Amino acid sequence: MVRFALDAADDGALVDKSWLEIAANPEVYRESGLLPRYLKAPLLGVWEITGRCGLRCVYCYNESPRTPPDLEWPIAERIVRDIISMRIFAFCISGGEPTLHPHYLDILRILAEGGVAVGTITNGWTMTPELARLMARYTTAAQVSLDGPTAEVHDLVRGKQGSFERAARAVRLLRDAGAQNVSVSFAGTRLNVDSFPRMPELCVELGADKLRTQPLSMVGRAGAVPSLEPTPEQARSLKDFIETAQGKYGDLKIEWGDPSAHVKVGLGIGMALTLRITQDGNFGVSPYYPIFFGNARESRLSEVWERGLREAWEHEAVRTLFAGGVESPVLRIPPGLEEPLHLTCRQPNGGDPA
Prior knowledge:
alpha/beta; 35% helix
């Protein structure tokens, strides 16, 4: 998801490998003046604007559908304005199913008109020609979740009959509407990962620009069901297929991501590059780990960032959680993070973090 937000900016310089190289030797870059102590704003963000969702995916990292109420519109609109004023390059609007939010299109429009590169993720269930047209107008990247080449496979993983046809139709509608960077995401579990070699042909047929997958993050709903994790043999076969499939399907790009990269970079350089906002307004620095530094109902995003969110990876509690390193590339909840962790940033008077 973090990599998808980078794609929304369409900036080839901001890739995981470059930041990992910097994180391996941060002091060298700081001494040369190429790496600041912290950023004035995150480079990119992911905003789960709603917990509402008509599906129930077996692996969902944030366990949608969720019951906490979405932010009231005046508070959500204030976040939108802060994103623009902070000049954050790119934001990915997700959920839940983001199109179920009553102000979904308002959020896309205001961000786009404010100069933010906007990406969005959808399961496709609510897609119509008109919605596709407006998404194409306001976004620089749109991603549809398709977890199998057939209804039998996809619907099993996504928890709702008919979801495959809706997702496939959504890709076509976005393509026909002229949307930029239409991608298909595939979450590989033990139930469906063996079907991935049939996905490129489907993506070509649907007109997608990109097919992306990554190791399954064993957090959220997947973390509670260890048997969902692909076997080592399945994982090797998937990666081998991706390596050999490059360039064999016309212009279709096939990507393999590392969901642990943003954590390793954050721990390495000590500052936050990414931002997460949950549907109930919590501010964090990782889409996968429930570590939060304030809430939109209590403080503005810009205030929380300046009071310490920008240096979240240096917080003593965070360093303690990840003292043993990060398993790569599969993410798991470390001991001590079984429940969401709400940390205190520095106070406005400059006090130290709690």
